[in-house]
Design brief:
The structure holds 2 protein chains of 2 kinds. Chain A is of the alpha/beta class. Chain A is built from 7 helices and 12 strands. Chain B folds into 3 domains: about 150 residues, Fumarate Reductase Iron-sulfur Protein, Chain B, domain 2 (Orthogonal Bundle); about 240 residues, Rossmann fold (3-Layer(aba) Sandwich), CATH 3.40.50.10420; about 60 residues, no CATH class. The chains are: A alpha/beta, B alpha/beta. The interface between A and B is large, with 82 and 104 residues.
Amino acid sequence: MSDARNSILTRLRATRDAHPPTPPASDFAPIEAKQWAAEERLPRIRRLMEAVHTEFLDATKADWPQVLREFLAREGVGSLLYAPGTEAGKQLVEGGERGPIPTLIPYDRPLEDLKPQLFETIEAGLTTTRGAIAETGSLILWPTAEEPRTLSLIPHIHIALLRTDALYDTFLQAMREQGWAQAMPTNALLVSGPSKTADIEQTLAYGVHGPKRLVVLVIHQ
Amino acid sequence: MDGNAPDFAAASRAALADPQLRGNFRRAMDGLMTKRAAQFPDAGEWHGVRALAAAVRLRALSKLPELLETLEENCTRNGITVHWAATTEEANAIALDILHKANAKLVVKGKSMVTEEMHLNAVLEKDGIEVLESDLGEYIVQLDGTMPAHIIMPAIHLNTKQIAHLFKRKIKDAESREDAAYLTDLARRVLRAKFQAADVGMSGVNAAVAETGTLCLIENEGNGRMCTTVPPVHIAFMGLEKVVEKLEDVPPVISLLPRSATGQPITTYVNMISGPRKDGEKDGPREVHLVILDNGRSSIYADPELRDTLRCIRCGACMNHCPVYTKVGGHAYEAPYPGPIGKILVPQIEGLEKRGAMPHACTMCNACVEICPVKIPIVEIMGRLRVEAVKPGGAVKDGGAKASRKESMVWSGWAAMNASPTAYRLATMAMSRLGNAAPSSLPMLKEWTNVRTKPRFAGRTLHDLARAKGIPDV
């Protein structure tokens, strides 16, 4: 179909050059102006995300595995998929020896070998985040070889670790400060709540295809 | 849909006579307008971000051929296979070829308006491939055997009761429950099995970033992520105008699209895909294909005024605010894109012979222009298309198809009458004496009086009355 390619591009170029447009300057100031004081960001993120049924847990760097295990026990969640190669995955396995222990399933093989379990039995998935965005109440997810994409997609409950030292004002600020344009991963995501739909008569319903619950485990620094 | 030309007048009469349909749309559009307004409490912020989003789109269009080449280059470097299609037939052939090579039997699809343009589902089904729409609204519409009534909310024309009946009829073991939560959960169960089994996932593209070779998709349900993550092959379809120059151009578009569309600050998921599964990665498709479709867009691009049609980011806000759309609903247009943007886009893609009625389905109230997040001069383009429809040899496909000797004579007479004071005086005098005697069933008058009372002509003209008051003629 390279014929199509060349004829499309030739046509676009010829007609554009016949009437060259002069676009106005792109002034990003209206987005750059959106700023919140450091202490306002987390409460704002929490308020916006809770409005769409996200749940929050508070923990510290040391006790989050314990807080997580207690939550899972309280909610009767029997199985948790995690990324064994990440720092968080190691801490999860080592920490929180006291208290109830759910079945921890390492995501240590290709999706193809885990599909039936992922779709049919695994109840929850744990991921880290690269921070969150105050303007819209959004988590930044950055899946890697160690922490696959489907961890935050297929299990009914997605638990996300959020460090309070990585809170940004806007999507624009986050991508600039983290240098996204120089190194986009296979998949990057903003996640702002559990899966939802309003396709049936504008009635909001949660958990249509992705996770039914999103739990943000805030690790206060 | 193909074959016979759509008859908007007849379809809209039928829609207007359906109180259930009108009630469903009225309620939905009122809700969407209220929710959108609540997202823009600060007029300064709205104007600033809107100007930026429009500038981003205009800059992209000003460099369109170069950006498409850069996009192709960067996607290819990332491992995405890029295909070009001049027509929907070519795009369908490309899709079938990929599916055959993958030996695909089951396809799951996320929302894609471009594939509606292509009538892709019908093509795949004819080829014996099962294709399942996975956006809940699209799934409902597919089960119902109809087409989307709205580009963002495909099943907006149906209420819960109607959907409950549909599910009961079509889904095994469905209970008869008029409960959105139950129905949503039912669809979850059916579709999760399909996501797991699908050979290929398909999606649209909200914005393709030339700088990084990234495909951005926004959605609330997670079905888009399922379609683009779980099956071994992902095919994304985009109209060639969907490219933006830089990654930084995405935030202004994403800032306005969900707020304008559904009145939410952001969608649940913003999904940015920059390639297939890399060595060592455990999930994601092994192949990602991007199909770039022209289908008349390069013709739209050729005209400097009509080119603005291509700024569109497909938020659907123009539909939600359109007094015509709200009353006749999405199906009356019998087109993949209904409402104001459809009324300017579809006639340019499909031609004025088939779609000449669409630009007339507009009161020119300008509501769509006021809320358009990228400032498309929809009403100006609508006017232009009305002219193109009666002017042979213009810029638009099948221009002049609606030219009528009678109409053109009437307008010439009208122009002559208004250009000469004597003719004007004689004509208005004649109207004031004889106008009331003219029957409302006169051929051209009938179009108006069919649905309205014929106005009574005053006994004396305005000029007469003014003169009687001593106001001199100028």
